[in-house]
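Reopening this one. Same input as before:
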Amino acid sequence: MVLNEDIKQQLEQYLTLLESDIVLKADLGEGEDSQKVKAFLDEIAAMSDRISVSETSLKRQPSFLISQKDKDYGIEFSGLPLGHEFTSFILALLQVSGRAPKVDQEVIDRIKKIDKPLHFETYVSLTCHNCPDVVQALNIMSVLNDQISHTMIEGGMFQAEVTSKGIMSVPAVFLNGEEFSSGRASIEQLLEKIEGPLSEDAFADKGLYDVLIVGGGPAGNSAAIYAARKGLKTGLLAETFGGQVMETVGIENMIGTLYTEGPQLMAQVESHTKSYNVDIIKAQLATAIEKKETIEVSLANGAVLKAKTVILALGAKWRNINVPGEETFRNKGVTYCPHCDGPLFEGKDVAVIGGGNSGLEAALDLAGIAKQVYVLEFLPEFKADKVLQERALSTANVTLLSNVATEDIIGGDHVEGLHYTDRQTGETHYLDLEGVFVQIGLVPNTAWLKESGIALNERGEIQVDKHGMTSVPGIFAAGDCTDAAYKQIIISMGSGATAAIGAFDYLIRN
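Same output, byte for byte:
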């Protein structure tokens, strides 16, 4: 048995939603992996009269194609779509059967207009919480347009292929055999990469917003909901919808919810936001903001959005260590997500840069996968909670190095090692490695505001008053990009609400 009873009970409910008969066309060998896939497919087929299994010839073994009867195309999975990819598998079943995917009509129209053959292959790890976004987006494209095909490849079962292609970060997408993208991406971002950015004309009829929110994380969505509920014409501009929370695996301090995960939480938040009259603009980057008669926000494609008030909910991104080799080997051994990329470093020596909670949590996660884990902390003492330090010290293949400075990361096609200096003795040492996981905190996404006249503090955070207003009247800010004392999801949501109410109050008084 591949699936436990709880999962099977949940799956049975979804299988009742199938709109046509489905065939799982499998290419299986005699090996252990093929037998696992066969057992999985047989279990699925036994749960519904609308699903059958047949044999076919595919590019890889073990693989299977989900297709309708009498059709030779569909969505392909190489390996087992379990872990975070089980949802991708369920959605693929439903969508291939004819159930409409839940995407905006504008996106559907753009996908259907693509008139060239595109074959995508996405390499994933089953512990990667970013991978399903990409897999599901490309699956949707292949369902809506028969010029597009997609195969999900589970890296654990095809390790030799992963190694030969030099894949050291997932999701890794190849288009017609060539590298296409790496890392989490929305369906809008993938479309833009395929067909180029939307023109300025696509934004010509937006008009004047009462409130324009820049940022699609917890703060931005909270602000949008509160603004829309006040009856304000509300727009939400997001380069990456969901923000930093999409990188969070386990959330246990969301009041009223014992446990959730970042992508799941933000899917619920997006659904909530869409229940109001909010104009959501995805996959577009703001590059400048200027207050004239109205407030103008310029986009990377040359378009300009105008609003009476603006709320900046820009969030934060992983802080770089800024040493030679970091950018060179990004996604070639340098990574920022141990949950996503950790399985690619099985049996290898790796380093974690950063001795805070996130650094030691990453080290302990990696200890069960990697051969040896080194943790490098710049300060004389580790900042992580004592319980994490004790666990790390008692883990045989974790080595803690404090009061050290990373000097550079070196390699050829991928990371091969790093140099660090002992800050007390001044001696330089070398570690032979294949992976470097950077975990040194976050930096606000405010670099583009330096010429805006909006006051920032020495850390680049936007300074706001108790109403969420910045130094420029009519421009507000919320969440991790501000000088708030603490950075938490629930605090960001609260500050988004504060900024929206502050903007409403500003509008009725001005």
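So the earlier flakiness isn't reproducible anymore. For the record, The longest helix spans residues 489-509.
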